[in-house]
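Quick log. Single chain, no ligands specified.
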Amino acid sequence: EISCSLVGSEMCIRDSIRNKKICSKLPKISDSYTTFAAQKLNTIRKQSIMLKTILSISGKPGLFKLVSHGKNMLIVESLADKKRVPAYAKDKVISLGDIAIYTNEAEVPLHEVLTNVKNKENGQQASVSTSAKPDELRAYFAEILPNFDRERVYPSDIKKLISWYNILIGAGLTEFTPEESAIEEASVKETKKEEA
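-> predicted structure:
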């Protein structure tokens, strides 16, 4: 979950790293820790910025884009109507970049599942309706993620995922793969070409 304090602390760390004067006043923090923190923040930036900044807020329909943050609240923008509203610390806010889907072996990041849906639908809206029967939803999802955990992934979860996918596609957000993963995949493909 994303909280106001988390976003605020990330900003504080980022400011501290960029401001040498602040860092110089913290002798107890080693250079290696500062380097680690900088690398960690760099990794966060390289992750799918889209999924990390797209939020689901309990009690509010649809998806929201993180715009900024203030004291004890986030400012978010609806992907549907572009209206900006506050999300407070008491609200349950979840970043799509932090969601994974249960399978029989391990958890699969949401970005991989969304990419599978996009590939199946050729970048178009999902061909199954969110009002489809449970068996239809499971059959559809089995084509997307064959080894999904049938006991822990419910039809309601599949409905939510399909709804999120349609909202993202409708908003013109179609790149789900994190930057680092995309680079790694390209590197693996190049290696396989060279071996062939």
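The beta strands are 54-57, 64-70, 73-78, 84-88, 93-95, 100-102, 107-109.
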